[in-house]
């Protein structure tokens, strides 16, 4: 009898719950769940960079925005279909991330983190000020939902939610497969001691760049889905704060576990949504909760679960 890993069983249960969610909740809750799934995609890709390679980056929001705006521009201004714009937008994000990551990853520690932070802010300024291209502070409007595939239409919130859910499941399974291959083991070795890894012949720069591009591509893909699900883009969505949120979600869930950051993304998204009625204390209250969680268990939710299992 085939015995599935516990993480896979948990993922299947979560997936089953999410698949039936629109049947018993309001469209608003479905909408929030879709946003949480988009964040979960971004943080799962980011975990390959931070959790498995040890590289702290603050520019996931920039790649999320590049994917979103590229697809929006191609479909609205040039008349492309969503299915044509999707691969081109993701490829564009991959090229930009490779061009940025190749020199930036030669820096170490805080120097690399600061460089990525300024990249995120630079892209935000482009989104904000290139009015003729991005709509600037007025926003980018007129984005269409994905074109139907046979009888499948993506006009409604529920159908868009299912497209995001399927994308999330595929990305998670691909990433889980990746981190359990030889590449994943090498990435862990680079995170532990990149100097030692270099001394035994591992091209650490190449593996760091690979992790950086993978995380960027997934963020760009999620950005494309966001653009055609939300159908309105505004520069503030892709500010440096989004990149910071991705880091926080990863740490809350537990970096280096894939499933942990995904849970972190869900928890942070719904906490912020629940506190929407009190915007003046919204970020302060959950920031205090975050500090308390990380002081109690620095490894995040996954570390807490492992501690309970140990007991």
Structure write-up:
The chain is mainly alpha-helical and 311 residues long. The protein is built from 14 helices and no strands. Helix 3 (60-76) packs parallel to helix 5. The longest helix is centred in the last third of the chain and has 27 residues, at 204-230. The chain is globular, with a radius of gyration of 19 Å. The mean pLDDT is 86.
List keywords for this structure.
single chain; mainly alpha; 311 residues; globular; 14 helices
In short:
This protein has 14 helices and no strands.
Number of helices: 14
Main structural class:
mainly alpha
Q: Could you state the order of secondary-structure elements as H and E? A: HHHHHHHHHHHHHH
Q: How large a portion of the residues is in β-strands, by DSSP E?
A: under 5%
Helix fraction, binned, reads over 70%
Task: Write down the overall mean pLDDT.
Answer: 86
Low-confidence stretches: none
Radius of gyration: 19 Å
Main sheet properties: none
Rounded to the nearest angstrom, the distance between the terminal CA atoms is: 29 Å
Number of strands: 0
Based on CA inertia axes, which overall geometry fits? Answer: globular
């Amino acid at each position: 009898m085939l015995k599935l890993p516990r993480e896979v069983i948990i993922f299947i249960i979560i997936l089953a719950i999410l698949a039936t969610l629109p049947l018993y909740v309001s469209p608003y809750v479905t909408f929030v769940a879709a946003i949480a799934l988009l964040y979960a995609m971004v943080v799962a890709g980011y975990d390959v960079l931070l959790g498995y390679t040890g590289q702290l980056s603050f520019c996931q929001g920039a790649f999320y925005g590049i994917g979103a705006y590229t697809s929006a521009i191609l479909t609205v201004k040039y008349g492309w279909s969503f299915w044509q714009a999707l691969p081109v937008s993701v490829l564009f994000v991959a090229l930009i991330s490779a061009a940025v990551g190749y020199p930036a990853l030669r820096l170490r520690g805080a120097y690399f983190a600061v460089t990525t932070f300024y990249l995120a802010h630079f892209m935000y300024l482009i989104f904000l000020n290139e009015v003729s291209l991005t709509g600037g502070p007025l926003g980018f409007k007129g984005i269409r939902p994905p074109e139907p595939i046979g009888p499948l239409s993506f006009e409604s919130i529920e159908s868009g939610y299912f497209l995001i859910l399927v994308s999330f499941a595929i990305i998670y399974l691909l990433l889980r497969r990746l981190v359990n291959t030889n590449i994943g083991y090498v990435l862990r070795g680079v995170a532990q001691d990149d100097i030692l890894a270099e001394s035994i012949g591992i091209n650490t720069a190449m593996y760091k760049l690979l992790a950086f591009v993978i995380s960027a591509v997934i963020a760009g893909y999620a950005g494309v889905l966001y653009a055609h699900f939300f159908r309105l883009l505004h520069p503030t969505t892709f500010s440096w704060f989004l990149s910071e949120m991705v880091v926080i979600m990863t740490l809350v869930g537990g970096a280096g576990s894939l499933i942990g950051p995904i849970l972190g993304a869900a928890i942070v998204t719904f906490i912020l949504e629940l506190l929407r009625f009190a915007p003046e204390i919204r970020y302060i209250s959950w920031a205090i909760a975050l500090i308390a969680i990380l002081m109690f268990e620095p490894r995040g939710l996954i570390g807490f679960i492992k501690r309970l299992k140990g007991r």
